[in-house]
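tool_call: predict_structure(chain=1)
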Amino acid sequence: MTSSINMLQHMISRLRFSGKLLHQNIIRCSSTATSAPKIRQMHAKESPALAISQTADGARLRNADLQVIHGLDKDGYFLGVNDQGEIVGTIGAIRLTDELGFIGFYHVTEKFQNKGFEEKLWEKAIEHLGDRNIGIEVAVDDVQKCQDLGFKEEWKTGRFQGVGVNLPPEILVNKAIRPLQGMAMGKVVDYDTSTSGIHKVPLVLGWCKAPSTGYAALEDDERVMGYGVIHPLHNPITHRIAPLLTENVSIAQMLLLTLLSSIPNQKVFIDAPLRNPSFTRILTMDLKMEQIGETVRMYTKGNPGFPVQKAFGILSPDAGC
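tool_result:
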């Protein structure tokens, strides 16, 4: 049987569709022969260029955060540069493990769409990932198109927008909830690794440090049962809850309220898998958050073991973690 990578290379060579693939960025390929921008690896100092792929709903990450995410695979991000040295395209092909990769941060400027350049970016990404199980996050409208390319739908993720809450201090008193600042972060890193199956120590440590605010839920024996972080975004007084990774919805709710109380009346986003309907009800019914978008997680070889039932807030849909 032809390997999945050969199948994908073959399918991408005849990719000819329009849509909102990878966060509503358009992929439209044609066979028209034209000179394309040069593709090269992205250096860490150039990682702010990944922001051009971010959605326009105000949830853009800070440049410093993009640099931290770049560290997931320093060789796995690529730029398209025109003759004037301007960046006209980006794609991330992140080797999360020896068996798992993820494609995200895709963008091509309008001038270079429909000229074959998009295909070259995708071919570069797939070449970098090899025969790994490849994940992507796509708009709902593009699921069938991606299934035709060999991807399998695994779950849907909703993007929710709301505001922080004012809660009386007595409601927030819970000895099981501890601030991450001052904690031995090794426990949190170990929990993240054992739960997600992805060893990403620099990302977890970099994401959790100030100006982020984070909390962990601990058992009486000091065993970590979950953690969550509220992170400032590029726009002023705008935040993102990510990640929110816990053993159950009750712990997720406690951490969520603690995080929201740290930013009263300020805008906040969270990307939450819709496999957890009770948590979705907390967001929409109790906290009056609005679902403003929906994407679908897909893989070429099926879910690699991502703990979707324990993931109440995704760190980055573009990075697959």
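agent: Residues 1-7, 9-34 have pLDDT under 50 and may be disordered. Proceeding to next step.
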